[in-house]
Amino acid sequence: MMNCQQATRLMSEAQERPLSLKEQAELKVHTLICSGCRRFGEQMHLLRRFTKASRPQDKDDSNQ
Amino acid sequence: MNDSRPFTDNGQLNELRQQMLSFARLQLSDEQQAEDVVQEALAGALKNAAAFNRAASLKTWMFAILKNKIADALRGRYRQPQMTDIDDCKDCSLADDQLFNERGHWHKDDRPQRWDAPEQLVHDEHFWRVFDRCLDALPAEQARVFMMREFIELDSQEICAALELTTSNLHVLLYRARLRLRECLEDHWFGAGENT
Tell me, what's the ipTM? Predict the structure, then answer.
């Protein structure tokens, strides 16, 4: 069965390519029983939205 | 701050230019090209200054223009000699991942927790400061491809072509960037609230 490392890897890849039906099914089964990975999946979408809305800072900002 | 005429404040404009330059340098790894895209973005912005009238979003607006210029520059590189600094991809192995145990399951302390009220964060300056610090903490290769993908919004194929990376190397770099960024945000923002 899929472990958390494999599941999170697939959730990251899902942002890059469509997952196969087999991958989707295995991921579904894993996230049903793993709340950590379920949250990870939700947070991947948030990361994407945050980054899109962000404005890169100058490194020197922290010195002021 | 002079709200109605942001382009008359040279100090502010100069500071913004520096921020744009350091971002462009990171993305392009080419001093001359970075200077060029920033000049183009600034010139384009000044030309269309009439379309803009709120100092609060000057930076957002400028970076939106810069983003497009960088994307164009990167796309233009496909058939040109490539940068070599990322080819070896020292960071493409999963071997040293410390978030998971030997069976590939989350270490107890690293298991993702619930993030409260993420919707409201967009307007929170403190959050963005933490977010930027987390981005800065990423290894350079990861930060670069992550920003190309998620900020400049090139797709996987475009990034692979621009950097001569294999798809699987790119996917690993992105995965690692996301793992670390998520962990950092949880440690310094979402989980930190309990202690303050």
Answer: 0.89
